[in-house]
Amino acid sequence: MPSLTVSANGVELSYVDSGVPVPSDNGYTTMFALHGVGFTGAIFEKVMSPATSASIRFVAINRRDYPGSTPFTPDDLKSVTSGTNEEKAAFVKARGLELASFIDQFIVRNNIPPVSKEGKHGGFALIGWSYGSFVALSAVANVDALDAPARARWTSHMRALVLHEPPTVAIGSPITPPFWSPMIDTTIPAEFRGPLHSQWVSSYFKHGDLSTRDFRVISWVLPVTSRAPTIFNIPEERLKVIDYAPPAAGSDLLMMLHLNNQMNASYKKACFDQDIRQLLPAMKITAFAGDSANSLTYPAYWAMEDDNKAYGGGMINFKGYIKGINHFVHWDEPAKALELYLDAVL
């Protein structure tokens, strides 16, 4: 698995690249995708074939602490659990700058075309799926900290930020009762929390009328029996590559528990800061969710709607609740996932 060195201290991020797509008279667009908790970037592999046919180059990146990318050090995690507010903010910023550097290097090394004059071709979209959204948001929030050449390349190339079902912990929104997750349920033996999370989070759920924005309509714990969890549909040999539980009870969990304020500040800067918007004039921000996803999705979606309204509206494009899809549409229905991503870019 290839990787790029993204910081002066040797941090590497590994990735899977679909490669240059079918030639098009108008060039091609690149999509960079960040995975969630307990799953590697390989969870996007089924999107890559239809993406190539649609003149999309699809690049799935493994976050820190996932295979092929640099693990966090004990000092890194100490800054998460017991650092000052400034140290915690620096940790979140560093994750964003690592991703921003990765994208900039990828643009240069692969001669990625910039956004076309009419804004319909070229450039790149950044997809944050689930908890991976926090890294995507931090990258956008910290474009202003890049050196001038890298900043200019982001300005000329970025077309879209896609927020694919970020949970509350990815945007620093308060976790409110009756919130539940296998990762924080201490009645479950510690060694089972990560594997159970993978089954639960990839299940299908039947909720009430989500348009009411009422927490009581959410099925917080119990999946439906009419459709199997997505990971039951992943062949065992691929599941060994895709399902990676250790961070779910390790670094990811620590970040979720200790970086709420810093995540919130990063998300708000990325989505609502006017200076960032001026740096990234072609950036379109889109959020969407399936109507059969797990319960971690909807409080965050509603919080983003409220924040967007508070900032005057029009900053985030909300696509609503997509019928019949769960949190893993990119595996179960890859053509549908690509359609949603393309719609967010165009």
UniProtKB/TrEMBL annotation:
Organism: Trametes coccinea (strain BRFM310) (Pycnoporus coccineus)
Name under which the protein is recorded: AB hydrolase-1 domain-containing protein
AB hydrolase-1 domain residues: 34-202
Domain of life according to the entry: Eukaryota
Signal sequence interval, chain numbering: none
